[in-house]
Amino acid sequence: MNLYNIKHPEEQVNFAQAVRQGLGKDQGLFFPEIIPQLGNIDELLAMPLVERSQKILSAIIGEEIPADTLNAMVKNAFTFPAPLAKVNDDIYALELFHGPTLAFKDFGGRFMAQALASVRGDGKITILTATSGDTGAAVAHAFYGLENINVVILYPKGKISPLQEKLFCTLGCNIRTVAIEADFDACQALVKQAFDDAELREAIGLNSANSINISRLLAQICYYFEAVAQLPKEKRDNVVVSVPSGNFGNLTAGLIAKTLGLPIKRFIASTNANDTVPRYLRSGEWSPNPTVATLSNAMDVSRPNNWPRVEELFKRNGWNLADLGSDALNDEETEQALKAQYAEGYLCEPHGAIAYQVLKDQLQAGETGIFLCTAHPAKFKESVERILDIELPLPEALDKHNKLPLLSDVMANDFAMLRAYLLAK
Ligand SMILES: Cc1ncc(COP(=O)(O)O)c(C=O)c1O
């Protein structure tokens, strides 16, 4: 598999290099040179998740990873289902929260751990990643206990849910967590700065595990196929998918699935009040506002990292950005959406509720809508209980961690401090 740096197309790497490096020169994102057209899609859709995903990923990655190795990687990573729940006659929910950390990031995080373990060679590796909520847990759990791989996770202090924090800041061992006194964009900027520091990169074998790593995106492609596979055949012609979007990795994966030949008519990017993309699609002007805190905090991102990949896909496929649906909901609208969904008999959390409502608003006659449910409702227990006036039992995975003490360090938004911290440990 060949990939190029979107900012500097002359920089070319193979899959192993892209996984190890994460980002290219000037913080450029790697992008596959070729996205193949898959053959018989109906045949693929008839397969079980793991077998189908092995075929899809092998078509993209090619001979660089031996078939047996790739098959084992997929099998070890995808150990849980992604069920499609019917909400009403026209709308389905793709539940991506049945993995160990109850969020869609388990797919990408676990596959990336497998990929890195298989291409790492010798030498130490430090995974440095920023999280706005769920990436941290997925990465921490996926890499927990792996030999010679240290993980450092930055997150915005006080801006993720207490339960999210407990899930990944209580592990210890090779997992260290740092609460940065700033917002998620600042955490992301610190990570980028670290990657730009060649000396640091070399000294600690720096690697990123957030959605900029191509292995994470590749894994996420697979559940879009799983969604269509579970639709009744007569519903597969006019499928519209609404993606709750923050950093736009999930949407990128969906667009790659469409490029591969998955029959999805169009996508909708659904955001919270951090609405850089919906405003851009309306006005043509890219003008991020300061990030604001919302109920759907994992999408509190105003400078989405993966947007260049989205634009690259539209450009290369000759698609028109005007065909990308989008809208933004504020917190009050999110609460109403969650209530409306609950009244329809489906219990969700704020991120999925936004995707559901925007889908409902924009779905046309004859279309079948799918929205992604990116986290288990109990991960946002406080808000869901307050908004719906119900009590939610904690799933076992959360309950276990909820009882443990937090092990995080606290740090100012200061690169020099972070650098010293990374070098010292
Ligand atoms: C629950 C949840 N929903 C949606 C998103 C947004 O996904 P993306 O950043 O790929 O757009 C995230 C990202 O962290 C998330 O944790």
Automatic annotation (TrEMBL):
Q: Name one Pfam family in it.
A: PALP
Its annotated pathway reads: Amino-acid biosynthesis; L-threonine biosynthesis; L-threonine from L-aspartate: step 5/5
What are its cofactors? pyridoxal 5'-phosphate
Gene Ontology molecular function terms on file: pyridoxal phosphate binding; threonine synthase activity
Tell me one GO biological process term.
threonine biosynthetic process
Domain Tryptophan synthase beta chain-like PALP stretches: 86-367
Q: Does the keyword Lyase apply?
A: yes
Q: What is its EC number?
A: 4.2.3.1
Q: Which reaction does it catalyse?
A: O-phospho-L-homoserine + H2O = L-threonine + phosphate
Task: Please list the residues that carry the modification N6-(pyridoxal phosphate)lysine.
Answer: 105
- Residue limits of the Threonine synthase N-terminal domain? 10-78
Keywords on record: Amino-acid biosynthesis, Lyase, Pyridoxal phosphate, Threonine biosynthesis
Where on the tree of life does the source sit, at the highest rank?
Bacteria
Identify the PANTHER family for this entry: THREONINE SYNTHASE FAMILY MEMBER (PTHR42690), THREONINE SYNTHASE-LIKE 2 (PTHR42690:SF1)
Protein family = Belongs to the threonine synthase family.
Protein name, please? Threonine synthase
**Lineage, highest ranks first:** Bacteria, Pseudomonadati, Pseudomonadota, Gammaproteobacteria, Pasteurellales
